[in-house]
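Module 6 notes. Inverse folding takes a fixed backbone as the condition and produces residue identities as the prediction. Think of it as a translation problem where the source language is geometry and the target language is the twenty amino acids. Below is one complete input and output pair. Work through it position by position during the lab.
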């Protein structure tokens, strides 16, 4: 299964002070996704609105970002990536953004709520 994760949407599911250090929150999410990928064998791309500085890298999770930071930029990048796929039927999009969920569903991808997905990550 191919997964596209709306990174800041997942991070924002919990008001744990992540906004005080966005980079650290992004790095923590990537670490959780790495553990999840190792446990499940899934193919995951996490998409952020802007390029993390310093860069966040992973050998098992693709860390992607929108080419130009702005509101909903990660959503647009996820939609762009969905449209580039030959077969979207084996793809899931993690978000709680209704507009992105509607676009992903219309493209043929399954949509998973960010809060439910976050709970799966936390359970590891």
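Target side of the pair, the amino acids:
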């Amino acid at each position: 299964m191919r997964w596209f994760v709306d990174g800041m949407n997942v991070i924002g599911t919990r008001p744990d002070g992540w906004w005080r250090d966005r980079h650290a929150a992004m790095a923590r999410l990537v670490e959780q996704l790495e553990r999840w990928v190792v446990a499940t064998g899934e193919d995951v791309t996490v998409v952020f609105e802007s390029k993390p500085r310093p860069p966040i890298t992973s050998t098992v999770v693709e860390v992607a970002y929108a080419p130009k930071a702005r509101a909903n930029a990660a959503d647009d990048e996820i939609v762009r990536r969905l449209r580039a796929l030959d077969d979207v039927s084996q793809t899931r999009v993690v978000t709680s953004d209704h507009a992105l969920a509607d676009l992903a569903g219309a493209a043929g991808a399954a949509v998973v709520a960010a809060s439910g997905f976050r709970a799966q990550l936390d359970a590891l």
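Reference fact for the lab report: Residues 22-40 form the longest helix (19 residues).
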